[in-house]
Amino acid sequence: VHLVKFGKKWDGKRARRIVGKTPYEAAAAIVEDYELPVTADEFLSELTPIFSKKWGSIKAQPGANRLINHLRSHGVPIALASNSSKENVETKISFHRGWKESFSVILGGDEVTNGKPSPEIYLEAAKRLKMDTSTCLVIEDSLPGVTAGKAAGMEVVAVPSLPKQTDVFTSADEVINSLLDLKLEKWGLPAFEDWVEGTLPIEPWSIGGPVIKGFGRGSKVLGIPTANLSTEAYSDVLSEHPSGVYFGWAGLAGRGIYKMVMSVGWNPYFNNSEKTIEPWLLHDFDEDFYGEDLRLVIVGYIRPEANFPSLESLVAKIHEDKKIAEEALELPLYLKYRDDSYLNTSSKQNC
Ligand code: ADP
Ligand code: RBF
Ligand code: MG
């Protein structure tokens, strides 16, 4: 990042201090945290053009388009309330087709006296929507935002933008891992209609590479082997996708194409410090295939990763996931991706 200029290194743990702040507050926090030899104003004015250039390449959170389209098609009015300036918010969303028109109200931090955590921006949003505050649902990724929403008398679902943050968001009415886990009917809103047989179709994504050694506990501890992929080579793909249990198709060069169910994330039961990708190929192999080229096309989502009171309950849940994936992959909607050319490198056909 820009910190390099000052001979400093970005510290992920400190990132949580700036999420949800106004641009000025965030700059001031960074200058203080890293003891930079500039004022917050100077830092901000150097940084703003650098960030503005990057806005166009920021991808929507998985589930964001789905949420916006669903609410619009059901006539549920939505507002966007951000501590960033109105101008910046409008520029940022201009890169996403249909977003600007979907919001009945867009409010920037420069349009209120006090930004979040003050309730002001949410009270103003409700007023402009002509909605009673008690009928509004706030979806927030930051702690100041959750505080603001609750202070405005609204129901608040937190979707933390940083991992392993659940404990910090206790004031929210619910903390979910990603927008894929939002259950609108819980809040009196029309339910999503796209779940099929316990699965949520997603925009397919793929990842592949040589199978590496994992923690050595898949088969040994759980009786469930998972063919781990190197996460280093794919850190950007992985960071784009929320942790959770997914399924799809797996291609093994020279062997074939198989159904696959996997977890992506920190495996709460084992509380790993790294985000890993753990695909279980739904096929009995006679031998290990470490080092071989494994290609995955991920087509659907099942559930968030969870913690379990016992190893047996974790194993039972994973077997449930397997059953859901096995059956869903027979649906034309998912079956068609079995022919994806990404899976067939030099491999011979099978199954
Ligand atoms: P590790 O911790 O090294 O990943 P696991 O106990 O999870 O070890 O076992 C994974 C290995 O088992 C894979 O790398 C692969 O070589 C082998 N294996 C055998 N059958 C399967 C399967 N059905 N799905 C995934 N991996 C399998
Ligand atoms: N680990 C968890 O801690 N929580 C989970 O909810 C979870 N779900 C999984 C679902 C599937 C389909 C698979 C294959 C694994 C899952 N695991 C989960 C990961 C499991 O803990 C992991 O494979 C082992 O830690 C082996 O390294
Ligand atoms: Mg494994």
Supply the number of structural domains. 3
Helix content: 25-40%
CATH topology-level name of the largest domain: Elongation Factor Tu (Ef-tu), domain 3
If you compute it from the alpha carbons, what radius of gyration comes out, rounded to the nearest whole angstrom? 22 Å
Structural class: alpha/beta
Uncertain segments of ≥5 residues (pLDDT<50)?
A: 347-351
Question: Averaged pLDDT, please?
Answer: 92
Along the chain, the helix and strand elements come as: HHHHEHHEHEHEEEHHEEEEHH
What is the fourth-level CATH superfamily of the largest domain?
A: Riboflavin kinase-like
Instruction: Determine the strand fraction and express it as a percent band.
Output: 15-25%
> In CATH's first tier, which class of the largest domain applies?
Mainly Beta
Total number of helices: 12
Q: N-to-C terminal Cα separation, in Å?
A: 48 Å
Task: Please describe the structure with a list of short key phrases separated by commas or semicolons.
351 residues, alpha/beta, DNA polymerase, domain 1, Rossmann fold, Elongation Factor Tu (Ef-tu), domain 3, 3 domains, five-stranded antiparallel β-sheet, three-stranded parallel β-sheet, disordered C terminus, binds adenosine-5'-diphosphate, binds riboflavin, binds magnesium ion, nucleotide-binding, riboflavin kinase activity, flavoprotein, FMN, riboflavin kinase
